[in-house]
Amino acid sequence: MYKVFDVVIVGTGFSAISAAINLKQLKLDEYEHPNFIMLERRSFPGGTWLQNRYPGAAVDVQSVLYSLEDEPYAWTEMFAKQPELAAYTNDLLNKHKLHKHIRLQHNLEKAVWLEDENYWLLEVTHNGEKLSFRSRIVINATGPLSTPSLPFFENMEAYKGKVFHSNDWPKDLELEGKKIAIIGSGASAIQIIPAIIDKVKRMDVFQRTPHWVMPRKDRVLSRIQINAFKNKYIYKSIKSIIYAILELRVIGFKYIPSVLKLLAEMPAKKHLKSQVSDLGFREKLTPSYKIGCKRILLSNTYYPALQKVNCVLHDIEDSVAAFYENGIVSKTKNKIEVDIVVLATGYRAADSMVSSEVIGRNNIVLNEQWKEYPRAYLGTSMPNFPNYFVVTGPNTGIGHTSAIFVIESQMRYIKQALNKLLNDKCKSIEPTVKAESKYSEMIHSEMDKTVWAHGGCKSWYQNENGKVIAMFPGFSFTYRLMCKKWRDDDHVFKY
Ligand SMILES: Cc1cc2nc3c(=O)[nH]c(=O)nc-3n(C[C@H](O)[C@H](O)[C@H](O)COP(=O)(O)OP(=O)(O)OC[C@H]3O[C@@H](n4cnc5c(N)ncnc54)[C@H](O)[C@@H]3O)c2cc1C
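The joint structure predicted for all components is written out below.
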């Protein structure tokens, strides 16, 4: 016997929490709230900040902006660290009584649209057992950066030390006196390196490409400031001001490259020069692509950490060639003995968007429909996949502001669809092929104007063919306005 739900949310991170809060606020005719569950493949709920417990983990947009609408929080730091972000997530789960909806260790493997019944059949594994659910609606909130990208190196299996992805940092890992290798120099690595450099005996950092790093205007907030955050009007005003300032960055990313040069590249170069006096070392750390092409990183402590006596920076010429029993063999045939290897190698962004097999109308497989590149109307819904919504879907990423702003914009669209499906007795909704094509064409023609497409880098924003599939090419308020305006003509309804 199948369990039947109005809505199944896949995931329990901020996207799923936002979807669940919206569902709880939705009033239905016959009964108060839709009947929904939240599937979580891990043994704990909460997503990003419950999983990423590596030393130094912190958000890189101002905490006030990185919070849900109507859910202010008395942040103690300008850029909150992981424990506070995890506490905020847990507060939301508790406040909105979401635990009773959550099914832990439930990994969604496959979703199949049952055309005659207008239901999704969901195949889930739970502790090795196969379970099936049915749901009228699926909200896929599996996270843009949830599935780690694990590199393969020759002879890795022979290595006897510890090796793990930054996303899987072991609890109580002993670092004192250890020799450690960090593979990668991106957003996670630049937080980990300064946080542990003084504990370890020796650190070898393997950098494929240097990143642009800007100073981080970080500070611990005063008691008065923290108390001010408790007033929701003050909170909203501060949030709006920071939002408006950050939004100006789009002018540089897209419209006037010289703005990016002036306001980002020059300060980043100055930052590097002021922290690294050795010319050769500075060259090693200077990117060859335009600033903004990859995510701009913020840190005051990364460059100083790299220059500590116990740290060695290996560039692409001396990258990892293979492993041996006790460590790493570099390209220059150096044998480096290490006790611990951290794979700070990022995420499989394209695979994380939808982490299960999805089969829609007429047996159409989502990955086949996305063979050329992932595409969706408003980055959220797809023709042939009725009543299926992807949060943080194709081209919804944002490099200049908080991901939560985008998530909550998508909710404005999804909420309207939910109302039609749950209150207006509509059996199914999906976007028309024409509407999705028009939207996707617009996205990629706008993308052509951005630094992400033409900045001379290879980044996780792009697929293997170099097409930018992760980012929204414009102001985030433009995206929100598009999500707010429901267009009947853009959709196919079945009653
Ligand atoms: C280290 C790190 C730092 C970041 N820093 C920032 C930042 O500074 N600013 C910013 O705006 N964004 C940042 N992000 C992006 C971050 O992903 C978003 O801000 C936000 O947390 C996304 O929330 P989410 O709910 O969509 O995804 P997640 O929090 O990743 O949640 C997805 C959940 O879905 C679950 N799941 C996935 N597949 C399945 C399945 N098949 N079945 C069941 N459950 C499944 C996962 O286990 C996970 O719990 C960062 C991400 C990472 C990893």
